[in-house]
């Protein structure tokens, strides 16, 4: 069994550098599993990620607990029998803050709402707890935060030690232990007693601040994301910068930003509606103008128009306005970096727009197709759009001549 120094006391979790004898080195997948006589490397477990660090300057990629031994996973073998080990202090201290923060938050949920914690997870950016709760809202979140932060300000000791079963019976444990003996309890002095094998800070003041960020409702529990320690500072700094920047854009003070943005969105929605109305009116106007300029071929009115740099959706909208009237063919083109063509016809017109387009697309070096009613194409030669439309009109005239 590896001697797990990190379990000895809360203070022992502040040992980051140590020397140890190597007990064994075994191949592990395409890497090596190094077992030491003693270690402060915390293996992944109970929602807390594994420590990072080095053994004789070689990076520790993962730390796993197996049959009471701690396996340090390395990409190469250390050559010395006695090795110098170092745990990444910043990452470990962050994990200690998040883990103790979780105990504190879980204790507050239990005290205020008799709500139990189902699970806990420290991710690289966010820490979440799942709490058995039927309802949760801003006011409840504020109450939990107030209680938890008051405990932080009191700078209460956090004590970790192993109890025998008789002693254990006297403790008001928040949850039942998963193991039967050598039960380690982490105590936020006289506030919370929780069986736990994780690493913790020595006193609540080291959490700095705890803040619930957001939550989502699951089946009959809530997944609650929180930050504490340096993560809370970083989160506050990011949000403060964002609010100040938005305030500067809008010439508003920080407490005015929310209502200012709300007002801005309402104004934008009004403007979007107004723009849409104007566009509709404009398209109707263009459609009418084009219908007035249409050429009569047989019993049909043929509209032919070449636009420049126009949006295809607008062109389709104009075509629709035209062919909503009986006996119309709309032959519309657009000159941009490429040539774009859209043909459409009224229901009573006996022509196939798809065929008309396909048989002439080579003029603009293009591709496309469609149905008898609507056809669309694009080509590499925008300068030839006019020739294409002229040729299509000729085709229509020939066909009409046949009838
Ligand atoms: Zn714990």
Description:
By secondary structure, the protein is α+β, with helices and mostly antiparallel strands. It contains eight helices and 21 strands. It has helices spanning 89-113, 138-153, 165-168, 230-250, 257-292, 312-323, 353-358, 385-402; strands spanning 3-4, 17-28, 31-36, 38-39, 53-55, 58-66, 69-74, 82-87, 117-122, 127-131, 158-163, 183-188, 192-195, 210-217, 222-228, 295-297, 300-308, 328-335, 339-345, 366-370, 374-379. The strands form five sheets. A six-stranded antiparallel β-barrel has the order 2-3-7-6-5-8. A six-stranded mixed β-sheet has the order 16-17-18-19-21-20, sandwiched between helices. Helix 5 packs across helix 6 (312-323). The longest helix has 36 residues, at 257-292. The structure holds zinc ion. Residues 46, 99, 103, 186, 194, 196, 198 line the site of zinc ion (ZN).
């Amino acid at each position: 069994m590896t001697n797990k120094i990190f379990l000895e006391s809360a203070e022992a979790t502040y040992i980051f550098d140590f020397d140890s004898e190597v007990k064994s080195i075994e191949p592990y997948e395409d890497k090596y599993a190094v077992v030491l006589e003693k270690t402060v490397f915390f293996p992944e477990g109970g929602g807390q990620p594994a420590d990072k660090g080095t053994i004789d300057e070689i990076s520790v990629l993962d730390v796993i607990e197996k049959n009471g031994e701690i396996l340090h996973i390395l990409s190469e073998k250390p050559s010395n029998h006695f090795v110098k080990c170092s745990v990444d202090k910043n990452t470990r201290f962050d994990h200690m803050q998040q883990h103790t923060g979780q105990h504190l938050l879980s204790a507050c949920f239990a005290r205020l709402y008799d709500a139990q914690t189902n699970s806990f997870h420290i991710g690289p950016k966010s820490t979440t707890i799942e709490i058995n709760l039927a309802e949760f809202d801003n006011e409840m979140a504020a109450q939990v935060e107030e209680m938890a932060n008051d405990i932080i300000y009191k700078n209460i000791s956090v004590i970790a030690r192993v109890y025998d079963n008789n002693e254990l019976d006297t403790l008001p444990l928040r949850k039942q232990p998963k193991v039967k003996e050598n039960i380690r309890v982490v105590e936020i002095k006289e506030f919370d007693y929780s069986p736990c094998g994780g690493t913790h800070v020595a006193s609540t003041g080291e959490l700095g601040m705890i803040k619930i960020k957001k939550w989502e409702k699951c089946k009959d529990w809530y997944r609650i994301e929180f930050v504490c320690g340096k993560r809370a500072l970083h989160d506050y700094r990011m949000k403060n910068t964002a609010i100040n920047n938005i305030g500067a854009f809008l010439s508003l003070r920080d407490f005015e930003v929310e209502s200012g943005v709300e007002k801005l969105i309402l104004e934008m929605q009004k403007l979007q509606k107004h723009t849409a109305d104007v566009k509709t009116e404009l398209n109707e106007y263009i459609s009418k103008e084009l219908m007035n300029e249409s050429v009569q071929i047989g019993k049909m009115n043929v509209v032919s128009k070449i636009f420049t740099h126009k949006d295809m959706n607008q062109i389709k909208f104009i075509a629709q306005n035209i062919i909503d009237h009986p006996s119309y063919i709309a032959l519309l083109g657009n000159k941009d970096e490429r040539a774009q063509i859209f043909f459409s016809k009224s229901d009573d017109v006996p022509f196939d727009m798809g065929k008309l387009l396909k048989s002439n697309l080579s003029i603009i070096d293009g591709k496309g197709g469609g149905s008898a009613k609507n056809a669309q194409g694009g080509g590499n030669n925008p300068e030839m759009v006019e020739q294409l439309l002229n040729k299509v009109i000729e085709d229509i005239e020939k066909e009409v001549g046949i009838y």
